[in-house]
Amino acid sequence: MAKLVSKTYGDALFEVAVEEGTLDTMLEEVEAVLQVLKGNKEYINLLSHPKIPVDEKKAMVEEAFKDKVSPELAGFLITIVEKGRFTEIEDILSYFMSRVWEEKKTGVACVTSAAVLSETQKKEIEAKLLETTSYVQFRTDYAVNPALIGGMVIKIGDRVVDGSVKTKLENMAKELNKIQLSN
Protein backbone atom coordinates (compact mmCIF):
# COMPACT_ATOMS: atom_id res chain seq x y z
CA MET A 1 0.00 0.00 0.00
CA ALA A 2 2.79 2.44 0.90
CA LYS A 3 4.48 1.84 -2.47
CA LEU A 4 1.20 2.53 -4.26
CA VAL A 5 0.77 5.79 -2.33
CA SER A 6 4.33 6.97 -3.02
CA LYS A 7 4.00 6.02 -6.70
CA THR A 8 0.63 7.75 -7.13
CA TYR A 9 1.67 11.02 -5.51
CA GLY A 10 5.24 10.87 -6.85
CA ASP A 11 3.94 10.40 -10.39
CA ALA A 12 1.54 13.32 -9.93
CA LEU A 13 4.37 15.63 -8.85
CA PHE A 14 6.50 14.36 -11.74
CA GLU A 15 3.74 15.13 -14.25
CA VAL A 16 3.32 18.66 -12.85
CA ALA A 17 7.07 19.28 -13.15
CA VAL A 18 7.10 17.99 -16.74
CA GLU A 19 4.08 20.11 -17.71
CA GLU A 20 5.60 23.22 -16.14
CA GLY A 21 9.04 22.49 -17.61
CA THR A 22 10.59 22.66 -14.14
CA LEU A 23 11.93 19.13 -13.72
CA ASP A 24 15.47 20.20 -12.74
CA THR A 25 14.30 22.94 -10.39
CA MET A 26 11.70 20.69 -8.81
CA LEU A 27 14.31 17.97 -8.30
CA GLU A 28 16.59 20.42 -6.47
CA GLU A 29 13.72 21.65 -4.30
CA VAL A 30 12.53 18.13 -3.48
CA GLU A 31 16.08 17.08 -2.53
CA ALA A 32 16.34 20.08 -0.20
CA VAL A 33 12.90 19.49 1.35
CA LEU A 34 13.65 15.81 1.84
CA GLN A 35 16.92 16.60 3.55
CA VAL A 36 15.15 19.02 5.90
CA LEU A 37 12.41 16.49 6.68
CA LYS A 38 14.88 13.67 7.32
CA GLY A 39 16.54 15.88 9.91
CA ASN A 40 13.21 16.74 11.56
CA LYS A 41 11.27 13.55 12.23
CA GLU A 42 9.30 15.39 14.93
CA TYR A 43 7.90 17.72 12.25
CA ILE A 44 6.65 14.72 10.23
CA ASN A 45 5.14 13.21 13.38
CA LEU A 46 3.45 16.52 14.19
CA LEU A 47 1.96 16.86 10.70
CA SER A 48 0.77 13.25 10.88
CA HIS A 49 -0.82 13.50 14.32
CA PRO A 50 -4.55 12.72 14.11
CA LYS A 51 -5.57 15.17 16.86
CA ILE A 52 -4.15 18.26 15.17
CA PRO A 53 -6.71 19.88 12.86
CA VAL A 54 -5.90 19.82 9.14
CA ASP A 55 -6.13 23.63 8.91
CA GLU A 56 -3.40 23.96 11.55
CA LYS A 57 -1.23 21.46 9.70
CA LYS A 58 -1.72 23.34 6.43
CA ALA A 59 -0.76 26.61 8.12
CA MET A 60 2.40 24.96 9.50
CA VAL A 61 3.39 23.73 6.00
CA GLU A 62 2.68 27.14 4.47
CA GLU A 63 4.76 28.86 7.14
CA ALA A 64 7.65 26.43 6.76
CA PHE A 65 7.82 26.27 2.96
CA LYS A 66 6.10 29.35 1.49
CA ASP A 67 8.60 31.54 -0.38
CA LYS A 68 11.27 28.83 0.07
CA VAL A 69 10.02 26.44 -2.61
CA SER A 70 7.95 26.84 -5.76
CA PRO A 71 4.20 27.36 -5.38
CA GLU A 72 3.69 23.98 -7.08
CA LEU A 73 5.76 22.11 -4.49
CA ALA A 74 4.25 24.06 -1.59
CA GLY A 75 0.77 23.25 -2.92
CA PHE A 76 1.76 19.62 -3.32
CA LEU A 77 2.92 19.43 0.31
CA ILE A 78 -0.37 20.99 1.43
CA THR A 79 -2.28 18.42 -0.62
CA ILE A 80 -0.32 15.64 1.09
CA VAL A 81 -1.37 17.10 4.46
CA GLU A 82 -5.02 17.41 3.36
CA LYS A 83 -5.08 13.79 2.22
CA GLY A 84 -3.55 12.62 5.52
CA ARG A 85 -0.49 11.14 3.80
CA PHE A 86 2.32 13.07 5.48
CA THR A 87 3.63 9.90 7.14
CA GLU A 88 4.59 8.76 3.61
CA ILE A 89 6.16 12.08 2.53
CA GLU A 90 9.73 10.74 2.52
CA ASP A 91 8.76 7.77 0.35
CA ILE A 92 6.75 10.02 -1.97
CA LEU A 93 9.60 12.48 -2.47
CA SER A 94 12.15 9.66 -2.84
CA TYR A 95 9.97 8.05 -5.51
CA PHE A 96 9.73 11.38 -7.34
CA MET A 97 13.52 11.74 -7.30
CA SER A 98 14.04 8.21 -8.61
CA ARG A 99 11.52 8.88 -11.37
CA VAL A 100 13.39 12.03 -12.41
CA TRP A 101 16.72 10.21 -12.35
CA GLU A 102 15.28 7.44 -14.53
CA GLU A 103 14.01 10.08 -16.95
CA LYS A 104 17.50 11.57 -17.10
CA LYS A 105 19.11 8.10 -17.46
CA THR A 106 20.90 8.62 -14.14
CA GLY A 107 21.55 5.49 -12.14
CA VAL A 108 21.71 5.49 -8.36
CA ALA A 109 24.24 3.13 -6.89
CA CYS A 110 25.28 2.33 -3.34
CA VAL A 111 28.78 0.90 -3.17
CA THR A 112 29.86 -0.67 0.11
CA SER A 113 33.49 -1.69 0.38
CA ALA A 114 35.66 -3.20 3.08
CA ALA A 115 38.01 -0.20 3.03
CA VAL A 116 37.86 3.43 1.98
CA LEU A 117 38.15 3.74 -1.79
CA SER A 118 40.48 6.21 -3.47
CA GLU A 119 39.15 8.70 -6.00
CA THR A 120 40.79 6.66 -8.78
CA GLN A 121 39.00 3.50 -7.62
CA LYS A 122 35.69 5.38 -7.43
CA LYS A 123 36.14 6.65 -11.00
CA GLU A 124 36.96 3.12 -12.20
CA ILE A 125 33.83 1.74 -10.51
CA GLU A 126 31.63 4.44 -12.04
CA ALA A 127 33.19 3.86 -15.48
CA LYS A 128 32.47 0.12 -15.18
CA LEU A 129 28.89 0.82 -14.07
CA LEU A 130 28.35 3.12 -17.06
CA GLU A 131 29.84 0.49 -19.36
CA THR A 132 27.61 -2.33 -18.06
CA THR A 133 24.31 -0.45 -17.74
CA SER A 134 22.12 1.74 -19.93
CA TYR A 135 22.65 4.80 -17.73
CA VAL A 136 24.56 7.85 -18.96
CA GLN A 137 25.62 8.98 -15.49
CA PHE A 138 25.53 7.79 -11.88
CA ARG A 139 24.80 9.23 -8.46
CA THR A 140 26.93 7.04 -6.26
CA ASP A 141 26.97 6.78 -2.48
CA TYR A 142 29.97 5.10 -0.91
CA ALA A 143 30.03 3.32 2.45
CA VAL A 144 32.61 1.28 4.31
CA ASN A 145 31.89 -2.00 6.11
CA PRO A 146 35.03 -3.77 7.38
CA ALA A 147 32.93 -6.93 7.97
CA LEU A 148 33.08 -7.53 4.20
CA ILE A 149 36.77 -8.43 4.69
CA GLY A 150 37.56 -7.44 1.10
CA GLY A 151 35.79 -6.67 -2.16
CA MET A 152 32.53 -4.75 -2.37
CA VAL A 153 28.76 -4.89 -2.65
CA ILE A 154 27.05 -2.73 -5.29
CA LYS A 155 23.31 -2.01 -5.17
CA ILE A 156 21.46 -0.40 -8.05
CA GLY A 157 17.75 -0.33 -7.41
CA ASP A 158 16.65 -3.90 -6.73
CA ARG A 159 19.84 -5.41 -8.14
CA VAL A 160 22.72 -6.41 -5.90
CA VAL A 161 26.16 -7.51 -7.03
CA ASP A 162 28.00 -9.01 -4.07
CA GLY A 163 31.70 -9.45 -4.70
CA SER A 164 32.72 -9.36 -1.06
CA VAL A 165 35.22 -11.81 0.39
CA LYS A 166 32.78 -12.46 3.25
CA THR A 167 30.10 -13.76 0.88
CA LYS A 168 32.61 -15.81 -1.10
CA LEU A 169 33.80 -17.46 2.11
CA GLU A 170 30.23 -18.13 3.21
CA ASN A 171 29.44 -19.72 -0.17
CA MET A 172 32.57 -21.87 0.00
CA ALA A 173 31.59 -23.02 3.50
CA LYS A 174 28.13 -24.01 2.23
CA GLU A 175 29.65 -25.99 -0.63
CA LEU A 176 32.09 -27.73 1.71
CA ASN A 177 29.22 -28.66 4.04
CA LYS A 178 27.44 -30.33 1.11
CA ILE A 179 30.38 -32.64 0.48
CA GLN A 180 30.03 -35.86 2.37
CA LEU A 181 33.20 -37.53 3.42
CA SER A 182 33.45 -41.24 2.66
CA ASN A 183 35.70 -43.86 4.34
Could you describe the 3D structure shown?
It is a single chain. Strands 2-1-3-4 form a four-stranded mixed beta sheet, sandwiched between helices. The longest helix is centred in the first third of the chain and has 19 residues, at about 1-20. The chain has eight helices and four strands, in the order H-H-H-H-H-H-E-H-E-E-E-H. It has helices at about 1-20, 25-40, 40-50, 55-65, 70-80, 90-105, 120-130, 165-180, and strands at about 105-115, 135-145, 150-155, 160. Helices cover about 60% and strands about 15% of the residues.
- Nearest-integer average pLDDT: 93
Extract low-pLDDT stretches: none
Shape: elongated
Task: Report the span from N to C terminus.
Answer: 57 Å
Structural class: alpha+beta
The total of beta strands comes to 4
Q: Characterize the main sheet.
A: 4 strands, mixed
SSE arrangement, N to C: HHHHHHEHEEEH
Number of helices: 8
Fraction in beta strands: 5-15%
Secondary structure: helix percent: 55-70%
Q: How do the strands of the widest beta sheet line up side by side?
A: 2-1-3-4
Q: Cα-atom Rg, whole angstroms?
A: 22 Å
